[in-house]
Design brief:
- By secondary structure, the protein is an alpha+beta fold.
- The protein has one domain (3-92).
- The chain has three helices and five strands.
- The protein has helices at residues 3-24, 27-30, 38-44; strands spanning 35-37, 51-58, 63-69, 75-80, 85-92.
- It has a five-stranded antiparallel beta sheet.
């Protein structure tokens, strides 16, 4: 498999696991994750410096999982539920976008 495909699979596996964990957590425990209305969280993240790189939807839990990253490599993982509550789940540095190989080319 190509490096891009492995990276995509790893991100989706992590996102699915996070969605299941968040769905199982009581509301009080979720409060520790820095959650608020989506508009509030997006405004506080300073998205003027970050671009959404990966986005996915878990139809089982109705959660949207997104990774935002800046050109400097800083990244933030957020998850939003069906009623618009968004949580900052993780952040870090060293995000690297790996381009997908062209069709028919080895990865």
């Amino acid at each position: 498999m190509t490096r891009f495909l492995w990276l995509t699979i790893a991100i989706w596996a992590a996102a699915a696991g996070l969605a299941l964990i968040l769905a199982a957590m009581p509301a009080a425990a979720q409060g520790q994750l820095q959650c608020a209305a989506r508009t509030t969280v997006m405004a506080s993240m300073g998205l003027y410096e970050k671009t959404m790189r990966v986005s996915g939807f878990d139809s089982n839990t109705a959660h949207v999982v997104q990774i935002y990253a800046s050109t400097s490599g800083a990244w933030t993982l957020v998850i939003t539920n069906a009623v618009g509550m968004t949580c900052l789940v993780a952040s870090g540095t060293g995000f690297e976008a790996v381009p997908a190989p062209l069709p028919g080319q080895p990865g």
